[in-house]
Amino acid sequence: MRSVIDILDLSTDEIGGLIAVAEDIIADPAKYENLCRGKKLATLFFEPSTRTRMSFEAAMYELGGHVISMTDGASSSASKGESVSDTAKIVSFYADIIAMRHPKEGAALVAAKSASVPVVNAGDGGHCHPTQTLADLLTIHREKGGFSGLTVGLCGDLKFGRTVHSLVGALSRYEDIKFVLISPDELRLPDYVKDDVLDRKSIPYKETSSLDDAMGELDVLYMTRVQRERFFNEEDYLRLKDSYILTPEKLRGAKSDMAILHPLPRVNEISVAVDDDPRACYFRQAANGKYMRMALIMMLLGLHA
Amino acid sequence: MNVDSIMNGIVIDHIAAGCGMKLYMLLGLDSLDVSVALMRNVTSRKMGKKDIIKIDADIPVNFDVIGYVDPGATVNIIKNGELSEKLTIGMPERLTNVIKCKNPRCITTTEQELDQVFRLSDRERQEYRCIYCDTKAAK
């Protein structure tokens, strides 16, 4: 029985397979509408999430399955002191597959060890969020036709952003990838990601604090939010926050086919004026998340169209 | 300085100087009711200085702990005053309930019945990471 806790639990071949299924779902959704008939997805959300949970639920409904939900950990068994492993064990009797979000890092692994059905990690604190990475990968694949040979710019909070760390790990398995890491000094990509992933695989990367300087060479720009609470003082935040806001003016130096991604929600780091730019992919990226979740549910349940 | 030979027990030799006390504590030797000698900074031809632990009792010892603290340490099993077996441990792939994850956001901090499990993530750097949250173990 297979669970997906980390994006690296999936091989590049499996990710290629999921992308192919997602593309086929997009092309012919009717083919998939009854595939999960009689199957139930349990969404166990021990902390609030709107888009991820709804995306999982929509994915299951579009496969013809049912959804049972625990949407608020505070009103559930967890508030009575039940362990994650007991909850997962019990929910396994009610559902065929579990999608779980939990504030503690490693909670999904604990659930997967005790559950008797597949568990998909829908976010475990700041640790992993593999289905977001699947959405990112499908988006890059659809927009750029593949992964090899791309120069990928990651911009904003590269220190705490779990989506960034997962994406770096996932993309580093493809050939001829280059990264441009754009962040204030305070929010640089952690050394362990640079050492363990980039340096170990001799993947070229450069670090810069200037989005403007990097813009012209990027095939993909992955924006993240620079959060006020990450700074030690207000002065630094105010000094830096505007330099990582994407505007139509900043995009003037970008390639005409650059893909702009953002895991959402955005606050102000991408100006709404950019939304109409054909290079803005972040809403398509959110839609892609649902298709990849459909493909992943199928894979874990051993179903094929 | 002389410490008597032992009749039945274990001698952990070639421990990197300075690691003996950590090994002593992690093996729980402080709570044993048997003769135990910890020698620190003993002159060694090969290592310059080394630590040695002698346990004068035939008790079970967690070899994973030895391999984790110092994979270069050797274990001599002594029976009837003779060397019966000499082992080099090496780094274990997994460590269970030897060290604790220090990440306050790790699930092990709230669900304390969970085993504390670390995996060998980098043999060259002798690095272990928590299997739950991937936090590096502090050496």
**Biggest sheet architecture of chain B:** 5 strands, antiparallel
Strand content of chain B: 35-45%
Q: Write down the CATH class of the largest domain in chain B.
A: Alpha Beta
Number of strands of chain A: 9
**Element pattern of chain A in H and E:** HEHEHEHEHEHEHEHEHEH
Q: Largest chain-chain contact?
A: A-B, 17 and 19 residues
Structure characterization notes:
The complex is a heterodimer of chains A (305) and B (139). Chain A has 305 residues and is α/β, with parallel strands linked by helices. Chain A folds into 2 domains: 7-128 and 289-301, Rossmann fold; 131-285, Rossmann fold (3-Layer(aba) Sandwich). Chain A is 36% helix and 14% strand. Chain A has 10 helices and 9 strands. In chain A, strands 7-6-5-8-9 form a 5-stranded parallel β-sheet. In chain A, α9 links the parallel β8 (220-223) and β9 (259-261). In chain A, α2 crosses α10, α5 (130-144) crosses α6 (162-171) and α5 packs across α10 (282-301). Chain B is built from 2 helices and 8 strands. In chain B, the strands form 2 sheets. In chain B, strands 2-3-1-4-5 form a 5-stranded antiparallel β-sheet, covered by helices on one side. In chain B, β7 (117-122) and β8 (127-130) form a beta hairpin. Chain B is globular. The two termini of chain B are 30 Å apart. Chain A binds chain B through residues 83-85, 102-107, 109-110, 124-127, 192, 196, and chain B through 103, 105-111, 113-114, 121-122, 130-136.
SSE topology sketch:
The complex is a heterodimer of chains A (305) and B (139).
Chain A lengths: L11 H16 L12 E6 L5 H12 L3 E5 L13 H8 L5 E6 L4 H8 L4 E6 L5 H15 L6 E5 L6 H10 L6 E5 L8 H9 L5 E4 L2 H5 L4 E4 L10 H8 L17 E3 L20 H20 L4
Helix pairs in contact in A: 1-10, 2-10, 3-4, 5-6, 5-10
Chain B lengths: L8 E8 L3 H7 L9 E9 L3 E8 L7 H7 L4 E6 L2 E7 L5 E3 L20 E6 L4 E4 L9
Antiparallel strand pairs in B: 1-3, 1-4, 2-3, 4-5, 6-7, 7-8
